[in-house]
Amino acid sequence: MSSGSGCAADLFQSRPESVLILENAGSRGGIRKKGMTATSSGSRSLPVSIVLIASLLIVSGGQAKGKEKKSKYPTVTWREGDRECTLSKEGDGLYRYGLGFETLQVTMAIDSQETEKTKRNLEHVFIVLLTFRNRGTVPIKINMEGISLELVDHYHVRMSSLDPDRLSDRIQADTEELEHQTERELKDHPERKVTIETRLQEHTKLVSEWQEYLSAKTLRDTTLDTGQPEVSGLVLFNTRSKWKGDWKSEENFILRIPLESVTVEFPFRLPPTDEGPELRKRQSE
Question: What is the pTM of this model?
Answer without folding.
Answer: 0.75
